[in-house]
Amino acid sequence: MALVTSKEMFAKALNQDYAIGAFNVNNMEIIQGIVDAAKEEKAPLILQVSAGARKYARPAYLVKLVEAAVIDSGLDICLHLDHGENFDICKTCVDDGFTSVMIDGSKYEFEENIRVTKEVVEYAHDHGVVVEAELGKLAGIEDAVNVDARNATFTVPEEAAEFVARTGVDSLAVAIGTSHGAYKFKGTPYLDFERLKEIHNLIPDVPLVLHGASTVLPEFVARCNQYGGNIPGAQGVPEEMILEAVKHGVCKVNIDTDLRLAMTAEVRKFIQENPAEFDPRKFLGAGREAIKSMVKHKISDVLNGSNKL
Ligand code: G3H
Ligand code: 13P
Ligand code: ZN
User: To test ligand 1's pocket by mutation, which of 34, 49, 82, 103 has the most ligand atoms within 8 angstroms of CB?
Assistant: First the structure.
């Protein structure tokens, strides 16, 4: 068992009705909760590390913790850099043993996005590492309310085909209406499935990635609020929309916010219900269990990913 790339995982998932969960990790308890769930579900797994995670936990700790998870679980795990900002951070992660990196050039114009993505692809492929890129901009809560705004921010299918052909990237994150965090939609949730289908039709062999795919389950928001939180008006992508996206080329589904909500709800509840307890292992342990059951739910009910090893 080892750290592996996502190549084989995606090849198996593409054009089948399941996707690989890519879960963000920031500390030991989060890693253990996710990995325990994937092991029980016999599911392929991507653990991803953001710039914020590297700043919080420090890169060496995260790499060693994920290596420990491979040893402890006996699973193959893909270790992925989430939203690599530039070539240098991608190179550092390749050199540190990551098996997959994302170069997020979505802030650039098309040609500059291609240039920086190509540079990363060349270096990563030389080192046996796969690359995810992003085309289009993830919409914020106020964005993409009308067709013009959508065309300006969402991924243009023809550009996606050209982008992949010119960069040689291994997978592509698309913008179809999702966004990061707990406040994704003000009114009725909307994803542009027609656009997703067009992209998938043009590049059927390219694994697509859905960022901002948390559902922000009302039950967990309510539990956070019940135990002293203040998270009003949070709303995510309904789970049936994720299942639908998975049918149209989406092989990697990024989930962070739902883990945060699950852990926070449980930690808040534990601390409030156990005022005399001051052993951090008790509330962190409760948080770890909450992560595990959320990830099991995602894998089995939303990603259709159980028993795919
Ligand atoms: O892409 C966003 C992920 O949820 C990571 O968030 O930058 O706060 O670690 P972060
Ligand atoms: P959420 O905020 O919806 O969990 O998205 C996470 C993500 O896309 C990480 O790259
Ligand atoms: Zn993301």
Answer: 82
